[in-house]
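ENTRY TYPE: paired fold submission
RECORD: A
CONTENT: sequence, then structure tokens
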Amino acid sequence: MNYSKLLKIGFQIIELPSRKVRYFINKQIQGKTIEGDPSFIVGCGHSGTSLLLAILGAHSRIYAIPYESRLAMKSNDEAQLLLDEFEQRTVAEGKIRWIEKTPGHILYIDKLFQLKPNAKVIIIIRDGRDVACSIKERSNFERGVESWIQANKSANRYQGHSQCLFVKYEDIIVDFKKTISSILDFMGESYENAMEQYNKKHIRFYHYKTSKPNKYDQSTHAQYRNWQINQNIFDGRGKWKVKMNDYEKALFKRLAGNMLIEYGYAENNDW
């Protein structure tokens, strides 16, 4: 339903921002409220957190917060203002629950539970070699390895936690429906086929443009990321095989080889 930017109250016509109009109509007139538990996607950067947010945001009942709020890194007062905003955005879009994605929250899961004791936390894991190679494109390889180690060490504390679910990026690629269905089951929702077409409606998480920039550099990075998330899902597994040199392989084995084995990405270090 398309709502006018003008809300008639009696004989007065008051002009309000579109989101506030939709929120008022949905909440006060149609009685829509937040019903589902708040949900968070966390994990090492470059592990598929944006992809998962876009997919889940295509669900008819789930609203994807379109920016990384860094909620758990704020003061309690600032965090509460953000939580209020999340509710307003969600109800304004006619949905009943929200999901937020800030990869760095992997280090602040306890704070998320303090803010929202009933929260559901989805921890996404990806092959550290691919993560490090992706981070290398923006920073350097060693930083990528260290980020992956730090994120996973923090995540390991929540193995078996009833309000945390571990998901591998690779499983989304290999068996989309089964993996997304398991996430939705964890959240208390049902699978919808429309989620397979998550990018048919323009997504604006990082930039207002959805087109690919003419060149890629720091100034166009946000637009490039937004263009990426609007593309069809692609298989990003095994990129390390052509992007890692011998020095980087040796470095990764020394720093994170055992963790790679622990997460089932390599039976041994003979790769």
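RECORD: B
CONTENT: sequence, then structure tokens
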Amino acid sequence: MKIGNVLINTDYYDSSLHYSDGDVEEEILKIVKTSADYSYALEKTDNWAILYHLHKDRENILSWYPFTGTEDALEIGAGCGALTGLLAQKCKSVMCNDISLRRSEINAYKNARFENIEIRVGNFTDVKFDKQFDIITLIGVLEYAACYVEEDNPAVTMLKMVSSMLKPGGKVLLAIENKFGLKYWAGCREDHTGKFFEGLMGYPDTKGIRTYSKRELQNIFMD
């Protein structure tokens, strides 16, 4: 399937696997289908999901990175494409992967003008990639490792799989919530579970979601 210049490969898609922010994604899909400029829609909404998935400021998390323009990039967990357009502008090619077909369609409509994007839909553990990459991004992904990797230490296993896809000298760019974020000590609900102090207490009531402290992340990378 092709949307604009973006190829969507569904050979690995499994409709039984699901990740979504709900019906609001249909509204987001309608917005990006209607116009390439959705600034008006952003001005008129206070819906966090629409702002989160479409606002240009999301690109700030990677816009500082000194890309050379020669990189082949792999974006795991590309979602609705908040960072895909930036990567397409900064890199030679962008291979996206996401488990959700609807989010991948949103991504394709958002970035339909770019000729260097391919999206492969499916669990990244099942998707076959036919090359290695200079850059692999894991933005808001590692915390869900246990949902898709059935191992005793899913974060380590996931990073081993990811590192095997890197070219020599390649880099992983990772972003994840800090388990010991100040807002959690101040009494905010944990971002993923909606429970108070859940991360600080080591997720006693939650399976499949894990964030980490800086030291824990360092140990995971060492392992």
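NOTES ON RECORD B: The chain has a mean pLDDT of 94. The beta strands are 2-3, 6-9, 72-76, 93-98, 117-121, 133-139, 166-175.
STATUS: closed
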